[in-house]
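Exam revision sheet. Question 4 asks you to relate a sequence to its structure. Input first:
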Amino acid sequence: MSTELKKIVLAYSGGLDTSVIIKWLKEKYDCEIIAFAADVGQGQELEPVREKALATGASKVYIEDLREEFISDFVFPMLRANAFYEHNYLLGTSIARPLISKEQIRIASLEEADGVSHGSTGKGNDQVRFELAYHTLNPEIKIIAPWREWDLTSRTALIDYAVKHGIPVPVTKDKPYSTDRNLFHISYEGGVLEDPWYEPHDDMFLLSVTPEKAPDKPTILEISYEQGNPVAINGEKMSPATLLERLNQYGGENGIGRIDIVENRFVGMKSRGVYETPGGTILHEAHRAVESVTLDREVAFLRDSLIPSYAKMVYNGFWFSPEREMLQKTIDHAQANVTGEARLKLYKGNCIVIGRKAEKSLYNQNIASFEESHGYSQNDAEGFIKLNALRLKLYAETFNK
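Answer key, structure tokens:
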């Protein structure tokens, strides 16, 4: 098998799994390993990545700053769709995978590599997300999924392997939960969190304070939107990544965006995940507020009916599918007039809409007012009610005698 592949590009994070994978790939395939780390907002986690990858056997390391592309071309389109999976998961891990895969395939082409690899387990969703993207973007590429090949069947076994080979890892047997961080969120899974009755310690969280420790004074924000995308905070325009980073700070300081859920994985099992999405939570509320005065009622109803399908496509790894692209065009057409401002109050874990406005607003105070208004005759409601009651009367007269 060592002669089958000459060069492999590994999606590398520097965490436990991928740290071990570089060494394992070298032993298994005896070929050149190129490590690729995507900067999608991990912060200081990327600082030691280059030296660590080279020290464990990589011949070359790519660290690509994808933060602006991540937010503008992946997170913002998803937010325009108001997408969430099941009850309230805002898809923070899911949405990063197609971008990482896209860049990984680009580097593989640049390096003339014949293989790509990832550190996703054989039980998780990420293996599906990565590999569906690989198959779509380069159907000829060879895919190596170590978790489906090696005999290291647990994270404990990986830690033992790393210790044996002198590979430093950021987890221990005493604190073995796994994290995935980007500019949109951070997730925590595995280890002690696998017991859904276990309450995580507050010192686990990195992006937010607990609501009990949030300030006693609320924070007021005004977020401006243009065609469904946030463009400014309190009148200050900024790039997509900068805007989200700023909202993460505001949200985190006020205890916004923590969730603890049991979700249904695409591969069939339930899993427990704890997530922090402070800025994303704020943007969901703000976007809905601006839509409330700019989106037509029936358009909003139809768009909302598409959210479960759209979110499922993102969660399951079908970002590059024709059906997701079709839905995106429909959603973006509906967002053409979603331009305006939302005012929010952040207070001890709560994100409360306290105002919304738009230059072109469908909300007409003169018509909606309980005071005397022009343009609406209350007498017209009688005929409207009778027409809507007709089928109900016929049903009652026929079956309720």
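Marking note for examiners. The CA atoms of residues 233 and 277 lie 18 Å apart.
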